Amino acid sequence: MPPSKFAHSSQWLSGRYLCFAEREDIALYKAQGLGVCAIARKIGRSASTISRELRRNAATRSGGFEYRATTAQWHADRAARRPKAAKLAQNDALRQYVEDRLSGQVSAPNGNIIAGPDVPWTKRRSVRRQHRRWATAWSPEQIAHRLPLDFPDDPMMRISHEAIYQSLFIQGRGALRRELVACLRSGRALRVPRARRKGKGKPFVSDQIMISERPAEADDRAVPGHWEDDLILGLKSSAIGTLVERSTRFTLLLHLPPMPGHGTGPRKKNGPALAGHGAEAVRDAITKSIQSLPKHLCKSLTWDQGAEMARHEQLKEHTGIQVFFCDPQSPWQRGSNENTNGLLRQYFPKGTDLSAHDESTLDAVAYTLNNRPRKTLGWKTPAEALEEVLT
């Protein structure tokens, strides 16, 4: 709310803020040579409040940090004026940086642009089960924390993730185009909580090695080469396999196309898995991806107890990689993979046919995801973290 001196109808400032009388006392005690804690005890305020007041509202025209009550009150009144111009509206270079990382196009490693589905902007929050716009899609938090790494010597290239969200959600801010909300992972134009349904997977009973027997080096993520795996499902029994390395969060996507004969006739009970994500298809896809990796990056796989891993013993024989299984209904034991699956829903929403994407498209999406900075990696990208491991 604006201070009372700027609007006659507004209320007086609450006791949360320093008043002019308190600033006069701070100036007197400061002139007497008292420290921050002593001043705070005398006026009944927190020491951090006094320290922040002396730093923010000091008079600096003379070249020092002299504190005067009138000057400090002028600084406080100027900072309290509303509305303020958005930082993104004032800094063109910063706004362009944010827009490029929100809406940049998805490209393959060779530089070819992958357009993705054509999704027009309807000025509404996106519906859950429909195609989503494909973009570089860095989150506002990723953008805000990547700026100090890309511009370490430019203090003007700084912004908080909350300021980016406000520029997208509040039309009055006017800094970013409103249609860029389609590039957010949630796809929502408003902050609306949404409950998530928890589905139960199919039971899988076999001689297996449980996650409790997985080596300790996989639990603390100190040694690379331990992977978490799962499937993301779509319409018409379509699926895409996901492999996430626990240490670097590097992601591989498995192409699982439908087999010949799928969808051409009535489904045969207890017949072969023709949808493309049966046990044999998943085994072959993992074998193909694992064999392209260095040997020291293929130590273990962790999967849930889904029927698609019924051929895990053959997978171990073909690749030499050890397979572990999570406890029933315990997705948090594959936290990195579950988090990555949520990121991938930006490109492969629920309720869409995933078999429409070919292998080159999946490689492009994996390349884009591996070049997005991650908070857990100190805002490095998974590709940068993997490169450090390999070198």
From TrEMBL:
UniProt GO BP: DNA integration; DNA transposition
Domain of life of the source: Bacteria
Gene3D superfamilies the record matches: Ribonuclease H-like superfamily/Ribonuclease H
Gene Ontology molecular function, alphabetical: DNA binding; transposase activity
Domain Integrase catalytic intervals: 211-390
PANTHER family attached to this UniProt entry: TRANSPOSASE, TRANSPOSASE INSI FOR INSERTION SEQUENCE ELEMENT IS30A-RELATED
Function: Required for the transposition of the insertion element.
Protein's recorded name: Transposase and inactivated derivatives, IS30 family
